[in-house]
Design brief:
Blueprint lengths: L5 H11 L17 H16 L3 E4 L5 E5 L8 E7 L12 H16 L8 E6 L12 H6 L6 H4 L4 H5 L11 H8 L14 E9 L4 H5 L3 E7 L1 E10 L16 H18 L6 E3 L3 E4 L9 E10 L2 H13 L9 E10 L2 E2 L2 H13 L4 E6 L4 H5 L5 E6 L15 H21 L3
Parallel strand pairs: 3-4, 3-5, 5-14, 6-13
Antiparallel strand pairs: 1-2, 2-4, 6-12, 6-14, 7-10, 7-11, 8-10, 9-10
Amino acid sequence: MYTCNLESMENKIKTFSKFGDAGHGGITRYSLSKEAIMARKEFQKRMENIGAVIEVDDLANMYATIPGTDAEAPRIVMGSHADSVKNGGNYDGILGVLSAMEVLETVVNQKIPHHHPLTAMIWTNEEGSLYPPAMMSSGIVCHDYLPEDIRVNFEYEDMMQSKSMIDHKSTFYEALEKSGYKGEKEFRLNPEKYLCMFETHIEQGPILEEAGNDIGVVDCVLGMFNYRIHFSGQTTHAGTFPMAKRKDALFAASKAICYLHEAIDALQIEDLVYTTGEIICHPCVHSCVPDEVEISIDMRHKDAESLQKAENVVKSLAERTWAGCACTIQQAWNRDTVYWNKELVDYVEQAAKEAGIKYQYIHSGAGHDAQFAAYMLPTTMIFVQSKGGLSHCEQEYSTPKYCTEGATVMLNAVLKADKEFKK
């Protein structure tokens, strides 16, 4: 049993939190921005200091590799992303990079024997905050292995033309060309050169903290669907048109949202989560009754049958009018539950148990680059406790102790895979 160094991890967290410091305890570090490039340079410097060889693919994904006793053996890769949402925290994504760095540093410094080459990786543009969609480069790299309904959303040429959410003109391709980190396609993650993948990540929820556990042994990424729900009414003057005659699309949407909560909750599906996170209102003028309103509904659960029951409730909205308004629905996208490789999950559990770290099994409700990689390579994840369950905000926090424990678990799980795992 080997242990990662708390002071070393804490130093990395503090150092990388400077790259994009928003001044309120968090960061804004869009992919391929000057702040992200600062983080990449620090990653490269530290990895080269331990003798790692740096490779960069054509999407700016970075790979830092230390050799094993068999130079021809496939690599074991660990990593995550270095970009953030606007006014995000210092742990989402980047902790997986720092943990991978810590594993490589520990292996080198403690001269830990290993057969396979070990790689720390940075994925480009996981968040998609500046250049959508999220998980862009993993979607491109894993494109040929993805289900067709997902694959079509990650065509290379389309991704290169993704426009900035700030100026709506500059493209991801232009940012890639200017970054200095556009490498060669031959360096992309692939199943011929790589054996398996691990990603350490903050939980982004309150389950571990409430249970008093430090580490989550992740078994899957939840299946989900997303619908767009549209209500059509009639715009009238807010001061002159009688209430009883109105067809207020926003009122209709609000009644439908309340119905969804009541009807879906009545199904009593344990652990089902659903969210209306977006409302588009037209004409969105204080003196006008809204005539067109569109809302989103995002729903997630491990079990496909349970999701189908909830989806039937959503579909039923279109069977009636709401406050006199017509309702139409359209599925935006969906994904099946992605299960991690059972052997790798077992290695993670064994590593936590042997280290005496409190852990539990847990699902991932959020999407990660690892879920796309899982279609191409045996993959698994490790969760670290999040304070208050907060994430994608500046209050996001995981203690250095928990972060170091996550790296320790990954280190020992990787060493087990190094000795035992076969594709």
